[in-house]
Structure formats: C-alpha cells, structure tokens
Amino acid sequence: CSSDLGATFEESLILLNGMRVDDPQTGHFNLDIPVPLDAVHRIEILHGAGSAFYGSDAIAGAADLITEAPERTADLRGSRFSIRARAGYGSFQNTEQHLIGDFASRRFSEEVTGNRNTSSGFIIDRNYRSQALSSESWLHTSLGTTDVLLAGSDRPFGANQFYGPYASFEHTKGWLAMLQQQLGQRMQAGLSYRRHTDVFILEANDPAFYENNHIDEAWQGIIRRTDLLGKGIQLSTGLDGSADTIRSSSLGRHGRNQGAGYASLDLRRWQRLTLSIAGREEVFSGGSNDFSPTFAAGYSLRDNLRLRASAGHAFRLPTYTDLYYSDPTSVGNPNLKPETSWSYEAGLEWTPGTRASLELTGFQNRIGNSIDYVKTSPDDRYQATNTGALAFTGAETALHLRLRGAHQIELAYTGMHASHSLPSGYISAYVFNYAAQSALFSWSTVIRNQIMARTQVTVVQRVGHTAYPVWDTAIARNTGHVQPYLRLANLSNTGYEEIPGVLMPSRSITGGIAFTWSRSR
To answer: Which residue among 13, 178, 315, 493 is least crowded, i.e. fewest CB within 10 A of its CB?
Structure first.
C-alpha cells in the first residue's frame, strides 16, 4: 500500500488479526513476523491514512494479515483432521518444506503451521535459511471465541549490499504470543507480546570490524466495541495501550509508552450516500499527544457507478534506529520529530456487468517533518533527518475482466510526482526512490477445472532511472491429493534494484509437489 502514495516501507503499518506487529527497532523488519505466511488465509488492505484506527505508522495505509480457524463440524461429537504438506526445489539450491495440520470440532479448533526455506543465494553472501512455526487454538463458548496464537521464527541471511558496499550478515529471531477474546457479540479484547532479536555484522569477512546486537520487545492491549444506534448507524469505539523497549549494543537502552482512544461513526441510512467519520487521540510518554481524524464518503450515481472520497491525518514515530543508530554508513538523530501527514483521495468505481469493473483514483499525500536518510556527497554518511515538507500527487487506474472459460485479466497503472523542500545536492536513501510510473498486466485461468495458471508482468520506472519489466508465472494442480506445482520468477531475467545498490534476484525456477489429506469422524 505504500507505493500508491509514494511512502516508504516504514510508513505502512503491518497488522496480524487487527493487532500491531511492526518492529520498533527499524521498519526493515516490519514483515519479519514469526508467523509462517502459510498460516495467513487472507490479507486486507486499508488504503490511505489509517492512524485514526491504528495509531503510528499508518501514513500510507495498513495491511492486516488474517488467520482463520478451520471449519467446525456441525455434529457435537464429530471432528475433522487434515494435513497439507509441500516440498520443492529450485534455482540457487533453493529448498522449501511447508506443513499445515489442523483439527476442528464443534467447540475446539487447532492449527499448527511450519515452514523452512533455504538458498545458497543468487550472488555471493545472499544465502539464507528461514524457519517459522506457529500454533493457533480457538475455543468456542457461549461468551465468544477465545483465540490463542503462539509463534517463533529463526532467520539467518546474507545481507550483501543491503547496508552499503559490504558483505553484511544478519541473524534475526522472533517470538509472538497473542490472546484475543470475544466478549459477547459486540466487544473484543486482545493482548499481544512480541520479542525480536537481531545480530548484525557489517562485514562478514571481518566480524570484528562492526557488530550490533539488538533485542526489542513490544506489548499491546486493546478493547473494541461496536454498537448499532439505529437503522444504518454504527458506532465503533476502542481503547489501545502499548509499550516497547530496546536493549542494544549500539543504540543503548530505551523505552516508550502510549495510550489511545478512538471512535468511528458509519452512516448508511440513505439509499445512495454513505458517510464515515473517525477520530483517535493518542498520548505518548513524556506528555505529547496527537489527534488523527479521518473522513470518507461514497455516493452511488447509479447501481453500477459509485463516487468516493476520503481525507485523513496520520503520523509516524521515529524508530529506535532512526533515533540512535550509528555505523560507518549511517547515523541516527535523537532530535527527530514525528512525521505527520494529510492524505486526500477521490475516485470512481464502475461495474458495467458481472464480468468487468473499472476503478479510477486521484490522490495526494502531504507529509510534514518527513524522516529520511540524506547526505551531501557520496563519501559522507547518511544522516537521519527531518527533511521538511513533501507532497506526492498522482493517479491510478485498475481494470478487471472476467472472460469466458475462467479467464481473468487485470490491467493497472499508477503515475506519481513529488514536490519537496530538500535543498539541491542532497542525496536521499529512501524517500526520493519512489516509482514515478508503474504498470501491471496479469492473466489467470483454470484449465479443465483442475489446473490453475497465472502470469504477471510488472513494469516500473523509478525517479531518475529507466523503466524495467519483471515477468512471473506459476502453474499448479488444485484438485486431488497430489498437486504438482511450478513457479518461474523474473522470466525476463531483468537486472534491477528496488533500493539503490541492492541488486534483486535474476531468473529462477522452483518446482515441487503438494500433498493434502483429511479425515472426518
């Protein structure tokens, strides 16, 4: 969701079942979550400012990774058990092993998920080993569902070029415990604990040159309620408290707390018009605060043509790396101010029939106190800095077509321009590396009701660089107990960099077999 508004990876919030899993040390680890992605059943994207609901970091929006309980049996004494396994091998000595086992009865459900992925790397010192394991239990009672999630991960990897011209090495570990409890039909409470460790060696060939050890911990507690105030009127309210700490060989020891309350009013009383108004008051340790309002409206001109518009305020607290980090390539700034933003969006949705839909959107994101790493010459260190005011203005369109024979086509395009107050001659690490233009074409189909095929071509043109294409294709059997699959990534064998100096993988092929088995009694 960050690419739509020109935002960086640190300005998009990552949630798991509606609770924060962003890493307070650095946005580089926001997706280094302990839960295997195989346990995620769907992803919900909130575009635009999301701080009214979720607080810090949702400047460009939020991505909510959602797990689901296995389908329960209707019979009080019945139960269902299933196993899904997958193993594959591919380019660069890539291996993958994935296993999901779940159990469901009328009162209790359980899912255990594990995966392991390894590779020798497509260039030297880009090898990795990624392992994750999770257990999620659901207890269904008259009060509501109790959801207990436990997860852990272990991921060493070569980070060649990630942090400048060094063959770096990194080893992260993560632990997560999350409890959510329904309190009747209208209320929900939740508590989560996340611990993340990071061992970082700047030069793997000379570990004594520079090494960091970080341990960060984060707590969050929530209570949320939804009430129907009348026909077409819904009020959502909530309280949110969180705390995080870090112990680091280079960043030192630090901690901070924050608490918030929010309310959202949705009005759907009219046949064609919908309105949504939300606000959140956040209070931080030390006495500062932030108020984040949002407003959204939609109006149906016809049954198949709808206009929509939204506006909202959001903010981002500096990470501990932004504030206190120092190494031979970059240095933090303890005097950084939080980023703030106002985003605006307007568009239309046209659905001329059941087989086609078209979306057109214009947007602007105005950021104050933007945080970036900048320097004035190639030999300098990057310095974390509030670079001043930024404005990203652009438009995007998406066309979805469902053709005969289960064929589906998607076409999308986004164009964007940035204006800023950064003095000329400054070199930016992140903010001004946005995609000025991007286009996507994808086609998918189901062959003979049992073979799924998909191909996708993405073309990106970043500021100051020529456009590059990336072509991916996948095919798999989706019926039966044995399901072979094949994935081909970067078929165009494009050499490209999403972050300057960090080369992305070349062409790769991965194939394997998935196995499914289930039993009911």
So the answer is: 493
